[in-house]
Amino acid sequence: MRMPRLTAFLTATSVIASVLAASAGEVHVLNWKGYGADEPWAVEAFEKATGNKVINDFFNSEQEMLTKIRTNPGLYDVVMINAAFNDQAMAEKLIQPIDVSKLSNYANISPDKASSPMLVHDGKVYGVPWVWGLTALAINEKSFDKPPTSIAEMWNAAHKGRVVIRDDAVEAVQFGAIATGQNINDIKDMEAVKAKLTSLMPQIKTFWSSENDWNQMVASNQIDIGTYWSGSADRAKTHFKLPVSLVIPQEGAVAWLDAFSIPAGSKNVEGAEAFINYMIDPKFYVEWVTKVGAPVSANTKAVEALPEDAFNRKVMGDPEVAKRIQFQAPITDKQREAYLALWQQLKVDVK
Amino acid sequence: MAAQGTSRSGLSSALPLLAPAYLWLTAAIFLPLSAMVFFSFMTDLPLSGKPWAFTLGNYAAFFSQSLYLTLLLASLRLGLEVTLWCVIIGYPAAYVLAKVLKGRSREAIFLLVILPFWSNGLVRIFSWAMVLREGGILDTALNAVLPFKINIDLMYSYPAVIIGLVHSYVPYMVLTCYLTLQAIDDSLIEAGRSLGASRLQVLKRVIIPLSMPGLVAGAALIFVPVVGSFMEPRILGGRTGTFYGTIIEDQFVAVFNWPLGAALSFILLAVVLVILAVASPVLKRAA
Questions:
Q1: What does the pLDDT read at residue B120?
Q2: What's the CA gap between B105 and B110, in Å, rounded?
Q3: Would A7 be classed as within a structural domain?
Q4: Is residue A3, in this structure, part of any structural domain at all?
Q5: Which residues form a coiled coil (chain B) (predicted)?
Q6: Which of A2, A118, A282, B256 is the most buried (most CB within 10 A)?
């Protein structure tokens, strides 16, 4: 019953979007809402420094982002793409190679991220690494004397009805892969993942979908443990003063890398380069972390600019952690649909 | 024949009055809905810029997995339960409003019924979340009054979904029943009483049959949106909050598979229409 409105809305936005075709001096940015690039103070600082005007547009899923750049060629100048989707965007010729010599901050990007095969194809850079983070566990400190070290804590009967997991098929399946000791990008034994997740279901209180859900449940002491994003756990602790701490289990955690790309047909490549360079600048990053809370910058100089004991520097920069985490690789549409089918089945079975 | 004549001239003079509403409905409802029908037969969205073809696969998907049917049945059950509770709660309230209260007090009570409409649906659902959870308002209040300790944690459960939905939809039942109850001539009730019918008999033989159109209209107004509801189950239902509506929402929002989402929606629409069509003769006879 709500679809007509959705369609009308979509048509309206795409009409408006094509009317507002980019003119020189404007940088059209496509990103998640509330994810750094649309911070008012950042936009203001960038506009003052370069004279470009920033126009933000947002997406709610990676599929929507791809659709927007497919159907609006020439509209966007900068798009934020999860590295696991960069491949697909490049194969469809939606994004163009970036001349990184124009980005003064690019030299400080940590070499393993800058050379990621997900972003560099045939020696050409299709994505500038921006920030990375983990989908790990977080605990309610009130429920633990000392933090757990194993992912098995999620299955501990003591937490029955006080465990949460995100309502996301890919994340759930990859979490199951880690719990069964498999490679998240090459799951050999799907049955084991399914069995493991099936046994987790009775533990679950609810499926969270936003940071706000998680924080509210901790604030009202309704949960003990759950999957959570590293940046969000940091924000919950430092910004909202909640008793939350991140646990990177010994079995490992899912890591993701977000990068900026320039769509093919961008009308303001120069402005786009300036914007990307600003986004990976240490000054912007430190301010973002301090004012709002953020994931870990891919720029080593930016991370070094943080205080010594900052979470993003101390915990996330720990070489022991680096050994345990697995970066998400591209997923085919077929896999995604299979994951969703599995996840929906699990959710129906537990009803 | 005379009646036909008046109705024709009535139509022509009514046209300027009807046109804005129908033009608006055509533009805002009919066209997007037709586009959705079109999408539901496609392999991929034409908006996505990828090649697409016509297919029945999206409808076949419904039958290929038991999960969709299970969820559809769960949603229909939810619709029935919520409608039933709305009747139980809403009908007596409507009766009191129509037949017992008069003047100022009626206006005041009426206002209280309509008041929830003035707040946003999401706000209402989130306030339920504060009331129902462990250590929430209900839990704290009851434990403050009662001499023994009880533990109330209704949040993230099936009853929480029912409570939230009944609260959202009960005003529809009150309003539709109020209109038909108010139209019942009091002298009919008095006649029944004076001919020796008990209060219960008057209720069963006079009031309920005469107010049946309002009950049916209210039930239809509630049942149809509840079957497709997704926001309330998702927020209040927790682990048990997966319903047909939430699965459709996933297709649109999470995986961007509009064709499948559209097909699932039209299957729901068809099922609801069949239910209403089957129920209507029965209900008409009752009325």
A1: 86
A2: 8
A3: no
A4: no
A5: none
A6: A118
Helix axis angle, B121-132 to B137-145, nearest 10°: 40
Q: Six-digit token pair at B85? A: 């509770």
pLDDT at position B8 is 60
Lowest average pLDDT, out of A10-14, A47-51, A129-133, B226-230, goes to A10-14
Domain count, chain A: 2
Mean pLDDT of chain B: 88
Smallest Cβ–Cβ distance between B256 and the set A67, A205, A348 belongs to: A67
pLDDT at A14: 47
Pairing outcome for strands A26-31 and A225-229: unpaired
- B238 to A205: CB separation less than 8 angstroms, yes or no: yes
Residue A224 forms part of a structural domain = yes
Token pair belonging to B234: 């998702």
Please tell me whether residues A248 and A275 are part of one structural domain: no
Q: Which residue of B has its CA nearest to A338?
A: B255
Q: Which member of A7, A66, A206 has the closest CB to residue B32?
A: A7
B33 contacts in chain A (CB < 8 Å): 3-4
CB contact under 8 A, B71 and A348: yes
The SS3 call for residue A17 is: helix
Taking CB atoms and an 8 Å cutoff, what residues of chain A touch B32? 3-5, 7-8, 11
What number is the average pLDDT over the span A53-65?
88
Asked if residue A246 and residue A222 are part of one domain, the reply reads yes
Question: Is A1 in Cβ contact with B224 (below 8 Å)?
Answer: yes
State pTM to two decimals. 0.82
Spans of chain B below 50 pLDDT:
1-5
Domain that holds residue A144: 133-254+330-349
Mutation target for B interface from A5, A6, A7: give the one with most B CBs within 10 A: A7
pLDDT of residue B34: 92
The reported pLDDT for the residue numbered A17 is 45
Q: In terms of domains, do A96 and A182 share one?
A: no
Are both A39 and A120 inside the same structural domain?
yes
Residue A261 pairs in a beta bridge with: A79
CATH superfamily, with its number, for domain B67-286: MetI-like (1.10.3720.10)
B42: its two tokens: 């496609």
Residue B37 CA to chain centroid, in angstroms? 23
**Interface residue A207 vs chain B (CB under 8 A):** yes
Q: Which residues of A touch B40 (CB under 8 A)?
A: none
CB contact under 8 A, B255 and A337: yes
Q: What is the DSSP letter of A52?
A: P
Do the Cβ atoms of A67 and B136 come within 8 Å? no
Note the ipTM here. Answer: 0.77
CA-to-CA distance for A176 and A165, rounded, in angstroms?
A: 11
A169 and A232 part of one domain: yes
Indicate whether A212 belongs to any domain: yes
Is residue A142 less than 8 Å (CB to CB) from chain B? no
